[in-house]
Design a protein that fits this description.
The chain is α+β, with helices and mostly antiparallel strands. The protein contains three helices and five strands. It starts with 7 loop residues before the first strand and ends in a 5-residue tail after the last strand.
Length: 72
């Protein structure tokens, strides 16, 4: 059985950060945030570690920037 490590959606991230979906899109357009894109539709999905890193970056004391870098 294959376990999908990308189990968190944009909705989950919004709830953790206390922001709306549009805020994430705006951050992405401004270059503050580059989420991983999964599947043929390019959905934003996150692992637990990514979710934790994004929350840390965008809460007080964070650097207000987070970018997904794929591992080759």
């Amino acid at each position: 059985m294959k376990v999908n490590k990308y189990k968190y959606k944009t909705k989950d991230l919004c709830e953790e950060l206390g922001v709306c979906r549009y805020t994430l899109i705006l951050w992405e357009k401004k270059g503050y945030f580059t989420p991983p894109r999964i599947g043929t539709r390019g959905d934003r999905r996150f692992t637990q570690d990514q979710l934790d890193g994004i929350v840390k970056a965008f809460t007080p004391g964070g650097n207000k920037e987070w970018h997904f870098t794929p591992k080759n």
